[in-house]
Specification:
The protein has eleven helices and 13 strands. The strands form four sheets. The chain has a six-stranded antiparallel sheet, with helices on both faces. The longest helix is centred in the N-terminal third of the chain and has 35 residues. The radius of gyration is 21 Å and the shape is globular.
Length: 341
């Protein structure tokens, strides 16, 4: 009887391993096909129970030199940065450095409706503050570094789109302001706060904020897909620090998400406040996926032609991350292919 049970277990493990290998081979073929057909360059990773069970990188970090992307190549995550900033703000609340009902007027009274706008409304995009990336000529403006004062002067005269708290409208300005507020209350740059509060505790060596892409740090350049790879005009991320400036890898984004949902960054009570309750709703730097089985959370991003997206399913402890520096396909299609792994 014991021998029979042992043989059954061995056969089950062998079958599982064979199925997993076949699934990995199919995904490898899928991503090689995307790259060869100029649909994507970048990296993906799947985590399950805090372990990476699949990762893949395709394409070039530098198309001119044919330097290939590898697992440690950093890619800008765009607005996925907002989830990190949401965590930093809630950690500041836990530390008693500010409250969610504190008013923007305590920091920037010159901004329209500042006396009515709270930290919570900034986090949830419910302020009515005009999105600075929609200002005419902004694509040229953001190629240069700008100070906090220059940024405030750039947006201060824009009219509000609605009364604070009465509506929702995604605005990168909200998170730029939150980044500046973090710098004020901690008395140090956003990059140092991120390192101190998130990266160092989680031992994330490939996650950081920097104002410019640095190829010597194994960072990927951003490209448009045409008949050849055309490098994008470079954004200076000083204008997007807390809203879109972090560089990372899919493996480390998964590590961050796992830590967030398993109590290693903020308390369960803070996480409950952070998360949106309804499908498609925006919480504090995080959205709820529109499907409910399984129940999950997401954020996507784009800056230059860096596209990013994560899905995380807390009950399953499953994380799926795609970071791309050149894409001509919906990231949702890639995420769904990974989910079916």
């Amino acid at each position: 009887m014991k021998k029979s049970i042992y043989i059954t277990i061995i056969l089950s493990i062998t079958l599982f391993e064979s199925t997993a290998v076949l699934a990995q081979q199919k995904l490898d073929t899928y991503f090689e096909h995307l790259f060869q057909n100029r649909k994507m360059m970048g990296s993906v990773a799947i985590s399950f129970n805090d372990s990476i069970i699949y990762s893949k990188s395709v394409g070039f970090a530098d198309a001119d030199t044919h330097k290939e992307i590898n697992q440690d190549t950093k890619i800008r995550v765009g607005s996925v940065t907002k989830t990190y900033t949401g965590v930093l703000l809630l950690k500041a609340v836990e530390e008693g450095r500010l409250k969610l009902d504190d008013k923007l007027s305590s920091f920037y009274p010159q901004i329209t409706n500042a006396g009515k706008i709270t930290i919570e409304q900034l986090l949830k995009h419910r302020t009515g503050i005009f999105n600075f990336t929609e200002i005419a000529g902004e694509s040229l403006w953001e190629q240069q570094p700008h100070t906090e004062e220059e940024f405030i002067n750039y947006i201060v005269n824009e009219e509000s789109n609605f009364e604070p708290g009465t509506d929702y409208e995604y605005s990168n300005t909200n998170y730029a302001l939150l980044g500046f507020i973090l710098q004020k209350i901690y008395g140090k740059p956003y990059a140092e706060i991120l390192e101190e509060k998130i990266c160092r505790p989680l031992d994330l060596k490939n996650t950081y904020f920097s104002p410019e892409t640095d190829e010597t740090k194994n960072e990927a350049l951003s490209y448009n897909i045409q008949n050849k790879y055309v490098q994008n005009a470079k954004v200076n991320f000083s204008n997007h620090a807390a809203g879109g400036g972090i560089a990372s890898t899919p493996v480390e984004v998964n590590q961050f998400l796992s830590a967030l949902f398993n109590g290693k960054l903020i308390t369960a009570e803070s996480l409950e406040i952070m998360l949106p309750k309804s499908k498609g709703e925006y919480g504090m730097g995080i959205e709820k996926l529109p499907f409910s089985n399984p129940e999950g959370y997401t954020h996507g991003g784009r800056i230059e032609n860096y596209f990013s997206e994560y899905w995380y399913f807390p009950k399953e402890k499953l994380g799926i991350v795609t970071l791309s520096n050149d894409v001509n396909i919906e990231l949702d299609d890639i995420q769904m292919a990974l989910l079916q792994y």
